[in-house]
Amino acid sequence: MNQFNEQSNQASASDLVTNELKEQGIITPQIVPIKYGDFKKLNLKSAEFLLYPIIEEQGLAMIYAMRGVGKTHVSLNIAYAVATGGSFLKWKARRPAKVLFIDGEMPAYALHERLKVIDQGRGFADDNLNIITPDLLKDKIPPDLATSTGWKAVEAAVNDVDLIIVDNISTLCRNGRDNEADSWIPVQHWALKWRAQGKAILFIHHSNKNGDQRGTSKKEDVLSTVIKLEHEEGYSAEDGAAFRVSHTKSRLFHGEDAKPFKAALTSNGWVYEDCEAGIKEEVWALHNDGMKQVDIARELGLEKYQVTRIIQKHKKCDGILRTV
Questions:
Q1: 14-39 pLDDT per residue, tens
Q2: 279: helix, coil or strand?
Q3: At CB < 8 A and 24+ separation, what contacts does 39-47 make?
Q4: How far is residue 193's CA from residue 128's CA, in Å, rounded to a whole number?
Q5: In this structure, how many other beta carbons lie within 10 angstroms of the beta carbon of residue 102?
Q6: Residue 263: in which H helix or E strand, if any?
Q7: 115, 80 in Cβ contact below 8 A?
Q8: Residue 237 to residue 243: CA distance in whole angstroms
Q9: DSSP notation for 132-172
Q10: Is the dihedral of CA 157, 159, 161, 164 positive or negative?
Q11: Is the alpha carbon torsion for 134, 59, 231, 283 positive or negative?
Q12: DSSP designation for 217
């Protein structure tokens, strides 16, 4: 009996998209390919970014981490940066855009306090940042975005924004199991539907015990950007929100933009630094002590060109650590 129920649940997950299309009376049109001779003549616009370089217009992205690393800190600051046309860490918004932050687990008072700290009384995001949080809903239950009922519940709110932040998958996409690829089909359909209508979506997710994103890798198939947050070795709870940021998928950016970096919330606000900063400071210190570049390279196990590049870059800037 349990086996039958499990098979039924899997089937219902995959059939949900078909049933929803039937309810809307949508008839699938005949698909006609375009000849390359015509395709190459098209004047297609390159991607513009809501938050450069990680979230493009109509982009789908994910940030994942273990519990307690700082996912919600990051997602709220991203929401504020996009809503105000500002920046957060290494990422910069090109213009103010409307954001919908859908929260699935935080108490409203905690969300309220965190946003007050970010806003600092400036009121820059008052009109552009919209929030759905369970405590302020009539039934106190967050919508399930793996069901057509959940889709309809947020449809009006989603329709008016440029970026949707889903924090997080476990609490807001509850129909099915994380490790079943089929259970992700309805959520993927929902995301692709809104992308086709000009919306970008950022999913916040948990890591598994191995440090990878929890559940099926199918979640990443249609995503342009996937970012992993993790504590550095030797991290202590006393360090608060401090983590390494790495890009496990970066379809639209590479090079310097894709390099990992470290970030931390301090009494002076958020700071970040290149993951190679420790080595760079050692190189600079030895250089100031008068050691030759070839000897520095030998001492630190680097190539001479790496030492030369570090010294040249250090001369051009006032330091590695920057306050946001």
A1: 567 667 666 666 667 788 999 999 99
A2: helix
A3: 47/252
A4: 22
A5: 25
A6: strand 261-266
A7: yes
A8: 11
A9: E-GGGSTTS----TTSHHHHHHHHHHHTT-SEEEEE-HHHH
A10: positive
A11: negative
A12: G
Residue with tokens 């932040």: 165
- Look at 44-48, 110-114, 141-145, 167-171 and tell me which has the smallest mean pLDDT: 44-48
- The two tokens of residue 85 are 């046309």
d(CA 216, CA 210): 14
Block residue for tokens 């996009």: 82
Q: What is the pLDDT of residues 255-283, one digit of tens each?
A: 889 888 999 999 889 999 887 666 777 88
Q: Are 241 and 70 in contact (CB under 8 A)?
A: yes
Dihedral of CA atoms 49, 54, 55, 58 in degrees, nearest 10, equals 90
Cα–Cα nearest to 52, from 99, 77, 84, 88? 88
Residue 61 burial (CB count, 10 A): 25
Place of tokens 């307690």: 68
Hey, how many other C-beta atoms are within 10 angstroms of the C-beta on 258?
15
DSSP 30: P
Strands (E) across 36-183 are located at 49-51, 55-56, 60-65, 87-88, 91-92, 99-103, 129-132, 163-167
Q: CA 14 to CA 184: how far, in whole Å?
A: 9
